[in-house]
TrEMBL record:
Transmembrane segments: none annotated. NCBIfam families: urea_amlyse_rel. Pfam families: CT_A_B (PF02626). It comes from the Bacteria. Keywords: ATP-binding, Hydrolase, Nucleotide-binding. This is Biotin-dependent carboxyltransferase family protein. The keyword Nucleotide-binding applies. Residues 28-291 form the Carboxyltransferase domain.
Amino acid sequence: MTAEVGLETVRAGALTTVQDLGRPGYAHLGVPRSGALDLAAHRLANHLLGNPETAATLETTLTGCAVRVSGRTTAVVTGAPCPVTVDGRPAPWGQPLHLPPGAVLDVGAATHGVRSYMGFAGGVDAEPVLGSRATDLLSGLGPAPLSDATVLPVGTPPPSTAVTVTDAAPWAAPPRELVLPVVHGPRDDWFTAEGLRTLVTGAYRVSAASNRIGLRTQGPALARAREGELASEGMPLGAVQVPPEGQPVIFLADHPTTGGYPVIGVVPAEALDAAAQAPPGTPVRFVPSSS
């Protein structure tokens, strides 16, 4: 019988959360989807371990995280490249690592991008809420962000034949400019023609105030054609909402499900993985899209 495996946080880092594919389907109850911000990196970690893509990983932010494993397991680090060590010895990023009981896996600060993903054979087995183990920072659902000495269980690992140690994670360094396609509407009529031009021609940058709820931008204000605010209405993932100061905010996984500021357009979900990896100061350019 395989011994149970657990994780104990040695170094929590700036923000480390448990994430999976989220809990879609509850927006009508005011519950965001949540889930991994870089879904491709999350899915890749599970693929390299032979896990289903629904298995939970740990999502780190900028400064990484370190955990001690209580039993023998296999782990992998994907997403933002970073130095990886096992018991202080350098280990490969993007390749499955066989960890003995008591080993400390340390994921260092991201050298490119923002968020790294720590996957474990069997997945992080936190208690699910509404069918998901994802930490939702807006609603407070799911496990709390990791702190030092947090203990989490690991699920039953897949068959050993599913883990291919020769597989490696591909990585393309984040572009120097974050290019986001945007489909105009539903409230683009709240902005002047000049405001609409500014959205696609203005020089924007990622704000340091960005988080899992939204990627905030700094740049020219978008001129309004109407005064006041809307009654609250539904907000989709990728909504480009414009608060009173006029600078766009792109809603990410933990976004509120309703809001009263006008949405000038929507960034398709498939473009949001890149937004999750754009560090503060990255130039942002919005490009008109029809889909």
